[in-house]
Design brief:
The structure holds two protein chains of two kinds.
Chain A (H helix, E strand, L loop, with lengths): L16 H19 L8 H11 L11 H35 L12 H14 L2 H4 L2 H24 L7 H25 L5 H8 L7 H22 L1 H5 L3 H6 L4 H23 L5 H13 L3 H25 L8 H18 L7
Helix pairs in contact in A: 1-14, 3-9, 3-12, 3-13, 3-14, 4-6, 4-7, 4-12, 6-7, 6-12, 9-12, 13-14, 14-15
Chain B lengths: L1 H23 L7 H11 L28 E4 L5 E4 L6 E4 L1 H9 L6 E4 L16 E2 L2 E2 L1 H6 L4 E4 L5 H6 L4 E3 L10 H12 L2 H21 L8 E4 L5 E3 L4 H8 L3 E2 L7 E3 L2 H7 L3 E3 L16 H4 L3 E2 L13 H12 L6
Parallel strand pairs in B: 3-4, 3-7, 7-8, 9-11, 9-13, 13-14
Antiparallel strand pairs in B: 1-2, 5-6, 10-12
Helix pairs in contact in B: 6-7
Classes of the chains: A mainly alpha, B alpha/beta.
């Protein structure tokens, strides 16, 4: 075995469960705090009581109004949960793309995957195809097809002999994003139907969140997440020269393909129920790298937990800053994400890989 | 670049929302002053005492053969636009103006309009010259119009530079009764003064009839007016004022213009009536199960889209709303 891998893969290192458990605990705390804040004031103590009362086998004396219970249990908590699932998914996909492409700036939004998913979804929403099939069921599939189309165009354009230069990938991503966005606009303009559903979908957000959507998202995201977790550990090896990875018995092309498939399916699932939300897939993995290093075995789960926390907070901002009305959550993530992206660019894109 | 893309997306979305708004002619706020100012310019002798009098800048009566030229109209920039003859070829980038012209029997003058005009059916054959946000100036020039109307200022200068007469008047802010004066204005512009007066008076009479019918109704029923995806008219909107006029309490009274209301607020403020284009968004949803409007089966969809256009048709939608809200009072 070549020596180079030792610094990335500490042999026999114990898996840092304490980090993961700490992350889960923090996430639950963030979720609780976010659930206690909203357009309608519900005292924190009451929120806690209402949730505890929902646990099986516990009956508390009711000291709250029906409205509060509905707001908390049917609107706010599903919304926080959906934001968490989508945030985790985007961060996990972002980390995966970054690993597969060996490129720290890969993000579902930046490499065109999100725009591709948007195009797929628009085709479903705006064309007669949507009348033939059940939209809720097939929207994620259409988005998935669009996402895959985009990622493979970006990838094949950016790939040159010997690697995948960072700038080329991002530039190809820009071009593919623009192309997909243009096609989306064209379809919207040609269709004479009401544009409002597509527009509000593209804008993104969790205002429509409910338990059914949470469940549907999980159905799409879970298999993708499994794929990424199983093959994700190989990403460590793939950070070496591909030649080395091959020597170590890793079938690079097949693994890459499966990981891209998983990340794109996860992105499509998330995007289908939340619209286009940028930069979470960039911020979360990089924050994790800065704090805990680049080992993909911890990077992927920790990025997912951070992504969940980040999107819960971003959505909290989106729904409270101009209460009683709402901001699109994508605006909030872009406000923090775009400067972060510029910061990464300025740092010379050196850390992380 | 992502910022640029995001921006482009936002602009597209904003533009489209505003296009919907331009149909609705009422997303702009605070325009009441100008609208009123324009109106008083049109009708100096209309002091609520003689609504049947034709409204001319000259003392000429409508049945007189004397021409009122030049016709002078104050636009929303405060400039006086002069017309030296009735415009035969009008391009109107505004749903409301198109509907008004057809209502007063002058629809044949329209030779072009924007992409989103669908009413009345006769407009189907009228060339559509882009949206009010991306106009085709070459086509406008080629059509040789006598008058181009805009409700927003964006392209006014560009078209004026080509030597074409442009009338720019902002959409009505919140006073829907001003629709009657808009009708009179277009009567004056096209010479169809008597017909316009009839249509305007009918509009006003129907407003009065509703007002007197609900005279004894107590103010109070709480209403949520959803225009889709929880976007709702708040203060300073035509629809917001209609709700007040109908003695309803708009649960979105504390927002300005059109905005998306948080579903939490809807549950908390518990409206007794919900108007929405999409019943399924509210009915059979766990979150709204305890809202009075759902419990009492008072979720309605208006059949008319008239509330989105400040035209003579607007009053039909107000009447429909009144019938839904006060089924006992109106039959």
């Amino acid at each position: 075995m070549p020596n180079t891998n030792l610094e990335i893969l500490p042999v026999k290192a114990r898996y840092p469960w304490n980090r993961v458990i700490g992350g889960i605990a923090s996430l639950i705390l963030i979720g609780f705090l976010a659930s206690s804040i909203g357009s309608v004031d519900i005292p924190l103590l009451q929120s806690v009581k209402i949730v505890i009362n929902k646990l099986p086998g516990i009956e508390l004396p009711t000291s709250w109004s029906n409205e509060w219970e509905t707001i908390l249990w049917q609107l706010r908590i599903p919304r926080v949960v959906l934001a968490a699932i989508v945030g985790a998914t985007l961060a996990m996909s972002g980390a995966t793309y970054q690993g597969v492409f060996r490129n720290p700036l890969a993000d579902p939004y930046l490499i065109g995957v999100a725009a591709g998913a948007g195009l797929g979804a628009t085709v479903m929403l705006a064309t007669p195809l949507g009348n033939l099939m059940s939209i809720t069921t097939f929207l994620p599939i259409a988005a998935f097809v669009g996402a895959l189309l985009a990622v493979f165009i970006t990838y094949s354009v950016a790939k040159n002999t010997g690697g995948l230069p960072i700038t080329t990938l991002i530039l190809a991503g820009v071009a593919v994003s623009s192309l997909m966005a243009a096609a989306t606009t064209l379809i919207m303009m040609l269709g004479d139907d009401d544009l409002r559903p597509i527009l509000s979908w593209l804008l993104g957000g969790f205002i429509e969140a409910n338990w059914t959507k949470c469940a549907l998202t999980v159905i799409y995201v879970l298999p993708a997440a499994a794929l990424i977790v199983i093959y994700g550990r190989v990403l460590n090896v793939m950070q070496l020269e591909e030649g080395h990875a091959n020597q170590m018995g890793v079938n690079t092309e097949r693994t890459k393909f499966l990981l891209i498939l998983g990340a794109s399916l996860a992105t499509a699932g998330a995007v289908s129920f939340s619209g286009l939300i940028g930069f979470v897939g960039l911020i979360a993995p990089h924050a994790v790298r800065l704090i805990w290093g680049t080992d993909y075995r911890t990077l992927i789960p920790m990025a997912a937990l951070s992504g969940a926390g980040i999107l819960i907070i971003a959505d909290l901002a989106a729904r409270t800053i101009i209460s009683p009305t709402e901001l699109p959550v994508g605006v909030v993530t872009a406000f923090f994400g775009a400067p972060f992206f510029l910061y990464l660019l300025r740092r010379g894109i050196r850390f992380g890989l | 670049m992502t910022v640029a893309k995001g921006l482009a997306l936002m602009i597209t979305i904003l533009a489209s929302l505003t296009v919907v708004g331009c149909n609705s002619s009422d997303t702009k706020k605070g325009l009441l002053d100008e609208a009123t100012e324009g109106a008083s310019q049109i009708s100096p002798n209309n002091n609520n005492e003689s609504p049947s009098l034709p409204l001319l800048t000259t003392p000429t009566r409508s049945n007189s053969l004397a021409t009122p030229f030049p016709i002078t109209i104050r636009d929303s920039r405060g400039l006086d636009i002069q017309l030296h003859e009735f415009p035969e070829r009008i391009i109107a980038y505004d749903s409301a103006v198109v509907e008004i012209l057809f209502a007063i029997g002058e629809g044949q003058r329209i030779i072009g309009t924007h992409d989103f005009v669908t009413h009345p059916p006769e407009t189907e054959d009228i060339p559509k010259l882009g949206s009010a946000f991306s106009i085709n100036i070459e086509q406008i020039v080629a059509l040789k119009p006598d008058l181009v109307f805009f409700f927003s200022e964006g392209f006014v200068d560009d078209v004026e530079k080509t030597g074409i007469t442009v009338l720019y008047r902002k959409s009505l802010g919140s006073n829907f009764r001003e629709v009657a004066n808009d009708i009179r204005l277009w009567g004056r512009i096209t010479g169809a003064i008597e017909r316009a007066e009839q249509v305007a008076t009918e509009f006003e009479n129907r407003v009065e009839l509703i007002q007197s019918t609900i005279d004894n109704v107590n103010i109070g029923q709480k209403i949520f007016h959803d225009t889709g995806d929880l976007w709702t008219p708040g203060a300073n909107t035509l629809v917001g004022e209609v709700l007040t006029f109908l003695k309803l309490q708009n649960i979105a009274h504390d927002i300005d213009g059109y905005q998306q209301l948080s579903p939490e607020v809807i549950v908390d403020r518990n409206p007794e009536i919900i108007i929405t284009p999409n019943r399924d968004r509210f009915v059979d949803q766990d979150a709204f199960a305890n809202v009075n409007a759902i419990k009492n089966n008072r979720v309605y969809t208006l059949t008319s889209d008239g509330l989105s256009v400040a035209s003579p048709r607007f009053i039909e939608a107000v009447e429909e709303l009144a019938r839904l809200v006060y089924p006992e009072t109106f039959r």
